[in-house]
């Protein structure tokens, strides 16, 4: 049990992954130590000095979880359109374009089929760098389609969340993705499908209040920010001081909201074991 | 009528005049009925004019009008012999959600909704209809109870959103809403959803899934409040009226998007001006829904409910909509 008494408060820091002047060296935003980029990458983008978790791109995440060269991406060509003709400080189309430039993907989630220690799984991984990992029509659609594939192929489903929530720029269409993803997952689970949900920093709003919290088993990376409402909104509404470590993975574990906190380097091993239990158990029945 | 909205200024002025004349007619005991009639006529015409070209922001204000019929008004009118139920069986009874069963034209129905208060005192007690996880858990428990009685469910949506509080997070607001989003698809009895006021985000959707979804004409349904959207995207919450326009949150928008089944027209000048007519409209609609649902077997109903939500706002449906609009 982690206590939140002084000195043990998980830090939420905005990571800056790249040092623009010298891309070989990266400054850890938490302990300010200078890390050699390549070494940091070998350590799965976790600071070797202070254990700070840098964001991981969806592609890298898939590499850390799946058997080499087993990932076959599905629905890679689905791309978003500006259904509400929305613009705020920037047009939505520009935000989409920037997301594509930043991630080399067309949307905030990559989905596909692959293997973990030779067990076939359907996996979806979100990328926070794409419009804050927000869920609009395409993210919802890719999750629905992936879940259907998992159901029809009788493979476990793994979703790795990293999202600020529903995508405001697609308005009510985004909200409805909460219902759609939950419906699809319900259908899958009702038929005995196993869904493992992995929460990473951050998982909030419409994503946490839909598919992310429907996992049969819910795991989180250390110190991830996880919650429904934004901290600023909670402070303004309640006029109360938020407790130390509020809405961190550790806080959620303490309050019975998740099963486990799992270090990045141990995630694949844990998934392997769970998948083994599941397939062996099924074989016996 | 005490509560006039900012854009109703001409109406408040007319009403003042009407009241003055009425007073005068009583105190001086003279017949001013013909002048009063003229003013009342003018009032009706002015109302018609104002309400014929409302901006999205003005609709937001009507949806939040303190004198709009509330859940308890509908319950008292539609199922006057109601029995209400309390508690989530885990932690507490969240008064932000209220649920009651009663006879509706000789058959029982269960009505569950956000419990906005009629005054400040009630609103403090009911947390302005902003539910904690316990509210969502009570709601799904009552839906299961309705299933046992084989009695259809009417869900009435009217909330700014799920409550953003410390305890709400500790007790799993995300899980509570997500759980409902999944489980309502399994509830075997007919479910009618009516958005009566504010359809605020996940907090609305948490009791917003059913076989048929209706919106009152001046209700709203949105992924985020206009104020919230403005403060995040424009870094300026005073741009709420602009955000209200961009978000496309009116009943007519949602109808056009194919995300709701119908719009229930409101009486002239909004539901708050004429509760009786509004309550009657809702009553007829519930009757119509029940007749529609009776011949369906359970499996067909559940399949259709699932299909309906999987299809709406899907990639294909939305893309078609997008292409036909541009």
In words, what does this structure look like?
The complex is a heterodimer of chains A (285) and B (326). Helices cover 36% and strands 18% of the residues of chain A. By secondary structure, chain A is of the alpha/beta class. In chain A, helix 5 links the parallel strand 6 (157-163) and strand 7. The longest helix of chain A has 21 residues, at 264-284. Chain A is globular and about 55 Å long. Chain A starts with 24 loop residues before the first strand and ends with a helix. In chain A, 49% of the residues are buried. Chain B has 326 residues and is an alpha/beta fold. Chain B folds into 2 domains: 6-52; 61-325, 2-enoyl-CoA Hydratase, Chain A, domain 1 (Alpha-Beta Complex), CATH 3.90.226. Chain B contains 15 helices and 8 strands. The longest helix of chain B has 20 residues, at 33-52. Chain B is globular. The mean pLDDT of chain B is 96. The chains are: A alpha/beta (285), B alpha/beta (326).
As a whole number of angstroms, the C-alpha radius of gyration of chain A is 19 Å
What's the number of domains of chain A?
Answer: 2
Helical residues, percent of chain B: 40-55%
Beta-strand portion of chain B reads 5-15%
User: How many E strands of chain B?
Assistant: 8
Radius of gyration of chain B, CA atoms, in whole angstroms? 21 Å
The top-level CATH class of the largest domain in chain B is: Alpha Beta
The largest pleated sheet of chain B is described as:
8 strands, mixed
Overall average pLDDT of chain A = 92
Topology, number of strands of chain A: 10
Mean pLDDT of chain B: 96
The CATH topology of the largest domain in chain B turns out to be 2-enoyl-CoA Hydratase, Chain A, domain 1
Strand content of chain A: 15-25%
Q: Label the CATH architecture of the largest domain in chain A.
A: Alpha-Beta Complex
Helix/strand class of chain A: alpha/beta
State the low-pLDDT regions of chain B, or none. Answer: none
Q: Helix and strand succession of chain A?
A: EEHHEHEEHEHEHEEHHEH
Largest interface: A-B, 63 and 56 residues
Order of helices and strands of chain B: HHHHEEEHHEHHEHEEHHHEHHH
Highest CATH level, the class of the largest domain in chain A: Alpha Beta
The largest sheet of chain A, given as strand count, sense and whether it forms a barrel, is:
8 strands, mixed
């Amino acid at each position: 049990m982690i206590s939140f008494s002084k000195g043990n408060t998980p830090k939420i820091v905005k990571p800056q992954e790249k040092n623009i002047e010298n891309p070989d060296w990266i400054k850890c935003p938490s302990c300010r130590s200078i890390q050699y980029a390549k070494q940091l990458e070998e350590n799965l983008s976790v600071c070797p000095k202070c254990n700070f978790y840098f964001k991981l791109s969806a592609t890298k995440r898939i590499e850390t979880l799946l058997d080499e060269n087993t990932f076959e991406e599905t629905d890679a060509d689905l791309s978003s359109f500006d259904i509400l003709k929305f613009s705020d400080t920037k047009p939505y189309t520009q935000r989409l374009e920037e997301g594509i430039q930043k991630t080399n993907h067309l949307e905030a989630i990559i989905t596909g089929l692959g293997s973990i220690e030779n067990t076939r799984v359907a996996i979806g991984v979100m990328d926070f760098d794409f419009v804050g990992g927000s869920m609009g029509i395409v993210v919802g659609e890719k999750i629905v389609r992936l879940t259907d594939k998992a159901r029809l192929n009788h493979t476990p489903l793994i979703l790795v969340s990293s999202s600020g929530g529903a995508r405001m720029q697609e308005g009510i269409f985004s909200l409805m993705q909460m219902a759609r993803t939950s419906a699809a997952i319900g259908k899958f689970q009702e038929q005995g499908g196993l869904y493992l949900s992995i929460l990473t920093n951050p998982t909030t709003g419409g994503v946490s209040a839909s598919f992310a919290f429907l996992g049969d088993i819910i795991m989180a990376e250390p110190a991830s920010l996880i919650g429904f409402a934004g901290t600023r909104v909670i402070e303004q509404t309640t006029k109360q001081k938020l407790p130390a470590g509020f809405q961190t993975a550790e806080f959620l574990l303490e309050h019975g909201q998740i099963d486990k906190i799992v270090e990045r380097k141990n995630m694949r091993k844990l998934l392997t074991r769970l998948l083994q239990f599941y397939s062996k158990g099924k074989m016996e029945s | 009528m005490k509560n006039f909205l900012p854009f109703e200024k001409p109406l408040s002025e007319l009403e003042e005049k009407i009241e003055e004349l009425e007073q005068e007619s009583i105190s001086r005991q003279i017949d001013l009925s013909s002048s009063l009639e003229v003013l009342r006529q003018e009032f009706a015409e002015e109302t018609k004019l104002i309400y014929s070209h409302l901006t999205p922001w003005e609709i937001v204000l009507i949806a939040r009008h303190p004198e709009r019929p509330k859940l308890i008004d509908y319950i008292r009118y539609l199922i006057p012999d109601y029995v209400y139920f309390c508690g989530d069986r885990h932690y507490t009874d969240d008064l932000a959600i209220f649920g009651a069963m009663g006879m509706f034209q000789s058959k029982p129905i269960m009505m569950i909704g956000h419990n906005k208060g009629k005054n400040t005192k009630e609103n403090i007690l009911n947390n302005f209809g902003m539910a904690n996880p316990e509210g969502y858990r009570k709601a799904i428990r009552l839906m299961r109870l309705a299933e046992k009685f084989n009695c259809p469910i009417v869900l009435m949506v009217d909330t700014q959103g799920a409550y953003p509080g410390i305890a709400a997070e500790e007790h799993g607001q995300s899980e509570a809403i997500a759980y409902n989003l999944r489980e309502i698809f399994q509830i075997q009895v007919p479910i009618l959803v009516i958005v009566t006021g504010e359809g605020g985000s996940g907090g609305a959707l948490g009791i917003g899934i059913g076989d048929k979804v209706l919106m009152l004409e001046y209700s709203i349904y949105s992924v985020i409040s206009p104020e919230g959207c403005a403060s995040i995207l424009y870094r300026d919450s005073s741009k709420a009226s602009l955000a209200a326009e961009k978000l496309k949150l009116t009943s007519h928008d949602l109808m056009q998007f194919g995300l709701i089944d119908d719009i229930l027209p409101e009486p002239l000048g909004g539901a708050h001006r004429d509760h009786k007519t509004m309550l009657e409209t809702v009553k007829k609609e519930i009757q119509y829904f029940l007749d529609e649902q009776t011949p369906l077997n359970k499996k067909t109903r559940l399949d259709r409910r699932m299909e309906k939500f999987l299809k709406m706002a899907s990639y294909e449906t939305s893309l078609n909509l997008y292409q036909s609009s541009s």
